[in-house]
Design a protein that fits this description.
It is a single chain. The chain has helices at about 1-35, 45-55, 55-80, 85-90, 95-135, 235-240, 250-260, 265-275, 280-295, 305-330, 335-355, and strands at about 150, 155-160, 170-175, 185-195, 200-215, 215-230. It is α+β, with helices and mostly antiparallel strands. Strands 1-2-3-4-5-6 form a six-stranded antiparallel β-sheet. A hairpin with a 5-residue loop joins strand 2 and strand 3. It is elongated and about 90 Å long.
C-alpha cells in the first residue's frame, strides 16, 4: 500500500505543480500588463515587475484550489491512461482506498494554502502595495486615484500610502464633520509617524495644511507638526493596506470588528473572512470531484479533454462564487452561507458522481 500511496502522491503533486506554474505564469503576465498601464515618472516598468513578483504568492493562494483540481484530473488521468488504476482495482484495491491515497497529498495542499494565506502572502502583499503607493504618490497632495478612505468618529480620512508595518503614512487628508453632513474643517499632512512611547500613543503629523470653515469664510493655516489622537493603530492600518481577498484570516476578523465598531458595513470583510477560512474545503471538494470524474466518465478520455473539463469545473465554481457573493451583500444574506454555497453545491455534485460509480 505504501507503493500505491507513493505512486498516487507523486503523480498528483507533479501534475498540481505543473498546473500551478502554468496558471500563475498566465496570471502574472496579465497582472504585469495591467501594472505597466499605471506606470508614471515615479513608478517604472521595473517597479511594476517587482510588484508582480511580490504579489505572486497571493495569486498562488487564490488559484491553489483550481490548480489542485487540474492536478488531480491530470495526475490521475495519466494513471488511468496507463491502465494503472485498472491494475490497482484488479488487485483488489477499492475505489475508497485510492481516494484515501489521493486525499493525503490534498491535505498537504490544503495546509500549504492556509500557510500562504495567513503568514506568507499578506505581508508580501502589504509590502508590494505600500511600495507601489509610495512610488506613485507625489507626497504633496491628496491622490484619490490610489490609497484608501477610512471613517473614524466624525472624521473621514484618506491616506495615499501606508508603510507595511502601518507605522508611517504618506499623504493624510482629514475631513471633520459635525456628525452629520456638514463639513467643519479639512487638512492635509505630507507624512505621519506613530508615537508609541507616549503616555497616550498618537500620530505625529508633519507639514500640515488646514482649512477651517467659520460661518461664511474659510480660515487657512499651516503647522510643521501636529498631534493626531485617533483610534487607528499601526496593526490595523497594516491590515487595511490591502484588499479583503488578500488579507490574512486574522486580519480580516480585526478589520470586520473595526468596521462594526464604527457603525460601518462589515459584511464584505466577513464574507472574505469566511471565504478564506473555508478555502481548504474548496480544495478538498474540487479534488474529490476530479477523482470521481476520472473513475467515471473520464476514465478513457484524452488528456486534452480532461484539461477542458478541469477548466470548465473551475470556471463554473468561480461563476457561482462571483454570483452568490454580491447577491448576499445586496440582500443582506449570511456571509457564511454565501461562502459555503459553492462548496456545498460542489460537494453535492461529487456525492452524485460517487453514487454513480458505486
Amino acid at each position: 500500500m505504501k507503493r500505491l500511496d507513493r505512486l498516487v502522491r507523486n503523480s498528483m503533486i507533479l501534475a498540481t505543480a505543473g498546473a500551478i506554474v502554468v496558471i500563475v505564469c498566465l496570471d502574472m503576465t496579465f497582472s504585469l500588463i495591467d501594472q505597466i498601464q499605471d506606470t508614471n515618472e515615479g513608478y517604472s516598468t521595473l517597479d511594476a515587475m517587482v510588484f508582480v513578483l511580490w504579489t505572486a504568492p497571493a495569486s498562488i493562494h487564490e488559484l491553489l484550489p483550481f490548480a489542485a483540481l487540474g492536478g488531480a484530473l491530470i495526475g490521475l488521468g495519466i494513471l488511468a491512461s496507463n491502465n494503472e488504476l485498472v491494475v490497482m482495482q484488479s488487485a483488489g484495491v477499492s475505489v475508497g482506498r485510492i481516494v484515501y491515497a489521493v486525499l493525503k497529498p490534498t491535505l498537504a495542499i490544503m495546509l500549504l494554502g492556509l500557510l500562504l494565506g495567513e503568514y506568507i502572502a499578506p505581508p508580501l502583499e502589504r509590502e508590494a502595495q505600500s511600495n507601489r503607493a509610495a512610488l506613485r504618490s507625489a507626497g504633496g497632495a491628496a491622490d484619490f486615484e490610489q490609497g484608501a478612505w477610512y471613517k473614524t468618529g466624525d472624521e473621514f480620512v484618506h491616506i495615499n500610502a501606508i508603510s507595511p508595518d502601518g507605522a508611517s503614512l504618506i499623504g493624510v487628508s482629514r475631513y471633520r464633520t459635525d456628525g452629520g453632513r456638514e463639513l467643519l474643517a479639512a487638512s492635509f499632512a505630507e507624512t505621519a509617524e506613530f508615537v508609541a512611547d507616549a503616555a497616550e500613543p498618537y500620530w505625529r503629523l508633519r507639514e500640515v495644511r488646514e482649512s477651517t470653515l467659520e460661518g461664511n469664510r474659510v480660515v487657512t493655516g499651516s503647522r510643521n507638526e501636529q498631534e493626531w489622537q485617533v483610534d487607528l493603530s499601526p496593526d490595523l492600518l497594516g491590515v487595511l493596506l490591502v484588499e479583503p481577498d488578500q488579507q490574512s484570516i486574522s486580519g480580516l476578523y480585526r478589520m470586520a470588528g473595526f468596521l462594526a465598531g464604527e457603525g460601518l458595513d462589515s459584511a464584505a470583510h466577513f464574507l472574505a473572512f469566511w471565504k478564506k477560512l473555508l478555502q481548504p474545503l474548496s480544495t478538498l471538494v474540487l479534488v474529490l470531484v476530479a477523482v470521481f470524474f476520472v473513475f467515471g466518465p473520464l476514465r478513457e478520455a484524452t488528456m486534452g479533454y480532461r484539461v477542458f473539463v478541469a477548466l470548465s469545473v473551475g470556471l463554473v465554481f468561480t461563476i457561482v462564487q462571483r454570483v452568490v457573493e454580491p447577491v448576499s451583500l445586496l440582500f443582506g444574506l449570511s456571509p457564511l452561507l454565501a461562502a459555503a454555497t459553492p462548496i456545498l453545491l460542489c460537494a453535492i455534485l461529487g456525492w452524485a458522481l460517487l453514487r454513480r460509480i458505486n
